[in-house]
Each structure stands twice: as C-alpha cells, then as structure tokens.
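Deliverable D4.2, example record:
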Amino acid sequence: MSGSPALPPGVEAIPALRRSAVDPAATGCRADITLAAADLPAAVRNLDAHRYFLEDIAGLDTDEGIMLVYHFDRFEAASRVVLRVVVPHADPQAPSIAAVYPGADWHERECFDFFGVRFTGHPDLKPLLLPEDLGIHPLLKSRDRHSIYDLLPLARMVDAEDRPAEPAGADKESE
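Output generated by the structure prediction step:
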C-alpha cells in the first residue's frame, strides 16, 4: 500500500505474526507488531541493536489470553514501536527481556504480581508490589473480558500490505 507510513529502522526484521505501520499523529507510534512469545527475545535484541530503549510493559486480560504490550522508542528520532504478545490464560508465560533491558526487571515483576505471567529466565521473579502470600493476581478477570478484536481497531489487526487498496476514484479530500 503506497500511502502507508514507513516502518522505523530495524522493525522490518522482527519476526511477526502481524506488522503494521501506523500513523504517529493518531497513535503516538510508528509500528505495531504482534509476535509469538518465542520470537520476543530476537525482536528485543534487534530493537536494542537499533538503539531503542524500553519505555514500559503493560498487561491486559482479554478473551484470547493475557496481552503483554511493550513500548520502545529511540532518542535519535521519534520511532515509537509497540510489540504485542498474547499468552494463554492456562499457561501465562513469556520469555524475560531483562537480560537485554535490565529495567524490564520491575515491569515484568509487576505483570507477574497483577496478571500471574511468569517470565522465563527472569533473574528474580517475585512480587514487586503485592505480598508474596496474597494468592491472587488482582487484574485477572473472572468475567466481562473483551476480545482483542473489540479493543483494537481493524487496522492494527491486519498487516498493512494485506489491507484492501483504496477503491478507484475514492475521494481523497480528507487527506
């Protein structure tokens, strides 16, 4: 699709289930990538090699599983990238990225606290904010979960190159 924004440096090499260039004016990001948990370490090493830093890691309990949302950016130019990994409720685990980004240690521990996600390879996975004997993960929902497909716009669920082309003669005045 020729009118799509360009992907920021290093993003095209990330192994992705779905990859979209997005409008930074509308989203604050330049790329939105969904990948398998097993591909997360390679993706993160690639971003680190292109001088990205980790902003945060967040969790979201959805029908499909727990979505981990990683935000990265660069100091050299606004190139915010979102990586999304969905882990199943039955076995919520993802590889730790703390070996590449030591600051991920606390973010991963917080996701462990609130969602019960186990980060394999984490140097010290224990609760960060909650008592160790609490026995629950308070942000896991027992009902009223929403589907990822209801939460994210279609443009973020379909690869940019897979979206249908603009119809011939479509009105372009809104650009």
